[in-house]
Design a protein that fits this description.
alpha+beta; 3 domains; 4-stranded antiparallel β-sheet; 18% strand
């Protein structure tokens, strides 16, 4: 049985008041009016979880406040945190369609930079914020500081395959078998069963 649809019209979420529903599928999306007067479109799940609580003005105000409390506004760590929030919550961002536009959000506790800093530590030089599972939100459990090579291996188009409780990218399985990085992926495209694709050392 499907989930019972709940009308959010007129409800308040942070600085947002829900004005109307614009779509139900694949997930509910609402037009909301912010206290500052702007209108914005928000996924229902983001309203419920608290990921989106304004049209973006809250982030601006938060940046001003954080600048006076922790002194890290120009740090690599702060820039990563701010970029994460913007691509998840601001439709005007070019990258929003790949994150917030697809329902990707972040742990509501990470609205506070100090909590993010406590959970992740300072960003090491040469690394950036990476989600371990790209289908899930940003959170302490699903994030790490990664090198460009690790980020590349974790891109959405890098297929993850599980065999005997072990999950790796197709490229990682190939390397473990002594094959070229694209070998396992090519096997999957040819219709090989996963078990055979990740255990056969030579193409058959």
């Amino acid at each position: 049985m499907g989930r019972l649809f709940k009308d959010k019209t007129g409800q308040r979420f942070g600085r947002l008041v829900v004005k109307e529903l614009i779509s139900k599928k694949p997930v509910a999306k609402w037009v909301c009016v912010c206290d500052c007067g702007n209108e914005t479109q928000v996924w229902g799940g983001h309203l419920k979880s608290g990921v989106t609580r304004s049209c973006g003005c809250l982030l601006t105000d938060s940046n001003k406040e954080n600048n006076t409390t922790h002194g890290m506004t120009k740090s690599r760590t702060y820039k990563s945190w701010r970029s994460m929030k913007m691509r998840c919550t601001l439709p005007s961002m070019p990258s929003y369609k790949y994150y917030g536009g697809k329902g990707i959000g972040f742990d509501s506790s990470w609205e506070d930079f100090n909590t993010f800093l406590s959970d992740m530590g300072e960003r090491p030089e040469g690394m950036s914020l990476d989600r371990i599972d790209n289908s899930k939100d940003y959170s302490k459990e699903n994030c790490r500081w990664s090198t460009p090579a690790q980020q590349q291996a974790n891109r959405k188009n890098c297929m993850h395959l599980t065999h005997n409780g072990v999950t790796q990218t197709a490229a990682e399985w190939a390397v473990s078998l002594g094959l070229t990085k694209g070998a396992v992926w090519n096997r999957i495209k040819l219709g090989w069963p996963i078990e055979k694709a990740v255990t056969t050392r030579k193409a058959g």
